[in-house]
Amino acid sequence: MHNVRFTIITGLSGAGKTQAMKVLEDLGYFCIDNLPPALLPQLVELHSQSGQDRKYAIAIDVRVREYFSDLHKALSWLDSSGHQYFLLFLDCSDSVLIRRFSETRRLHPLHKTRETPESIEASIAAERRLLADARSIADVVLDTSDLRPMDLRQRLIEIYEGKPLHESVTVEIFSFGYKFGAPADADMVFDVRFIPNPYYVDKLRPMTGEDKGVYDYVMQFPITKEFLQKAADLVATLIPGYAREGKARLTIGIGCTGGQHRSVAVAIALQKYLAKLDVPSTVRHRERSVTPIS
Q1: What is the residue-level pLDDT of the chain in tens, covering all 294 positions?
Q2: What pTM does this model have?
Q3: HEC readout, the chain
Q4: What domains, with CATH codes, occur in the chain?
């Protein structure tokens, strides 16, 4: 049977389940909101047919309160079936919850039901009673009262990945040619047309920056090496700040005229420079299939 792991997120309404699901989605989890616990076996069966390993994050709250009696049964089934799961409970102080509902002008899920009177305080108290059992068996109870969205992200990354926040940012480097349009999806763009152009060297013209001849030609210039060192230092310096603001991906465009020679070589080299600074990254070349023009 292929490996399947579950994170089950529950807790008080307004405590941050939606934000938590977004973070786990960035961490590669397949996220399902409000799945009744009784349907977990069917989910596992569907997964087994896919033939892939996968991580699931499932949010359960009082909107499916009639199914909470099935939670213990579903967790016991996961145990007996050999599937890993982690139960996360998001808690929050009453005063903060009241403020959050007031700011968003949302109604509490238990508002005006037979279980509670109309006041938000009574709704929160009733929800605490409904969730008491789930809280008691949670692997981690995380109080979000004083956490901003980026703070919650950091705590979840620490819990699930066991690594500092800045290491959660994915760095993607891509080369491109200005002749084919500047990128609209890059967070940061470097124009490397200041580097002498290999296109004007006859034997290098049909090659690309992935070929040793072109790569060595571009790297021989002191300005190239100076640029790469400063660019790598800049990226490494900025990553913690981006991470604190909740950014999961940093995309860096490296552009030259045709996207075949200088930008390709520099993108490859930048990845190497970042690796020396313990910043993992990926590289792709946007104009790989385009006829070389420089």
Answers
A1: 445 578 889 899 889 998 999 999 988 888 988 877 778 778 777 776 666 677 889 888 776 555 566 777 888 887 887 777 888 999 998 999 888 888 777 777 777 654 444 688 888 888 888 888 888 888 888 888 888 888 888 888 888 877 666 676 789 999 999 999 999 889 999 999 999 999 999 999 999 999 999 999 999 999 999 999 999 999 999 988 877 665 778 899 999 999 999 999 999 999 999 999 988 899 999 998 554 443
A2: 0.58
A3: CCCEEEEEEEECCCCCHHHHHHHHHHCCCEEEECCCHHHHHHHHHHHHHHCCCEEEEEECCHHHHHHHHHHHHHHHHHHHHCCEEEEEEEECCHHHHHHHHHHHCCCCCCCCCCCCCCCHHHHHHHHHHHHHHHHHHCCEEEECCCCCHHHHHHHHHHHHHCCCHHHHCEEEEEEEEHHHCCCCCCCEEEECCCCCCHHHCCCCCCCCCCCHHHHHHHHCCHHHHHHHHHHHHHHHHHHHHHHHCCCCEEEEEEEECCCCCHHHHHHHHHHHHHHHCCCCEEEEECCCCCCCCC
A4: 4-163 (3.40.50.300), 167-285 (no CATH)
